[in-house]
Amino acid sequence: MKKVNFTQVQDSFDNFINSIDQEQIVIEKEGKAIATLINYEEWQRLKQLEIELIEEDEEDFDTVEEVIAEYNQIHGTEFTVENLKND
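-> C-alpha cells emitted (87 positions)
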C-alpha cells in the first residue's frame, strides 16, 4: 500500500489512477489518512463481501420470541412478550 500526500494527488491524479491496478493508495492530508484509491473490481469485491456479511448477520438474528423461549428453557420461567410488556 502506497501513502501519498493530498497535494501529490492533485498534481498528478492521472498517474495515481493508472497505478491503482498494482496497489492501493492511501491519501493523507496533514499526516492523516483521508481517503483510499482502489480499483473498481476491488471495490466491487469489498461491497459484495459487505453485503454477504450483512445478510449473514440478519440470518443469525433471533426474534424476541425466540430469545424469551430460550431464556424460559434455561431458567424454567414462563415469560411471554405480552407479560413483559405489561410489567
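The longest strand covers residues 32-37.
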